[in-house]
Amino acid sequence: MPRTIPLFPLNLVVFPGEKLNLHIFEPRYRQLVRDCIESDLTFGIPPFLNDGVSELGTEVRLLSVEKAYDSGELDIKTKAVGVFRIREFYREAPGKLYAAGQVDTIEDDPEEDPALKVRINEYVRQLYDTLGLRKIFLDLPPSYRIYDIAHNLGFSTEQEYQLLQATSELERQAMVLEHLENVLPIILETERLKDRARLNGHFKNLTPPNF
């Protein structure tokens, strides 16, 4: 069933479950936050890509206003709750400064493939070890979803949007596995070359081979 929600286009992709902190300074979005508080509204963040508002976006709920400035600016905390598709975009909601859209909620299949999860785990461990992010990997709960690691896999914004288009965890697993199989060898080789460059000019203690 289509419904109309306020929209806050941004140059980024937000994934369901993600917590996002925002500094609100434009009058139209200060009005949007006030309306969310007064009417318990959610709002949508569609990525602004290629000079346009994307068809898909992420619905977020306002959690709290952390700080209200004398200027009227606000620091807010939000949490993403789902994905929607814009049927019709309105540059201004009726009687409002901010944009809005008639949207449909996208249903998602959360079932994953345990075998793919094992392979992804190994690749992610290698990636995070190489980049010095091992603590992030160790802090991941066993039940983590692809959305929980998507911002730390080296995706471009356009690739993150493709991930947002996937309507099942299985599809996202396949996309991430293919991405890691392509980029991990490049990252490992880059780190190896950096290590060699750091050794240039240093005295090397090498054990010669026996022959």
TrEMBL record:
<dbReference type="InterPro" id="IPR046336">
    <property type="entry name" value="Lon_prtase_N_sf"/>
</dbReference>
<feature type="domain" description="Lon N-terminal">
    <location>
        <begin position="2"/>
        <end position="184"/>
    </location>
</feature>
<dbReference type="Pfam" id="PF02190">
    <property type="entry name" value="LON_substr_bdg"/>
</dbReference>
<dbReference type="InterPro" id="IPR003111">
    <property type="entry name" value="Lon_prtase_N"/>
</dbReference>
<protein>
    <submittedName>
        <fullName>Peptidase S16 lon domain protein</fullName>
    </submittedName>
</protein>
<dbReference type="InterPro" id="IPR015947">
    <property type="entry name" value="PUA-like_sf"/>
</dbReference>
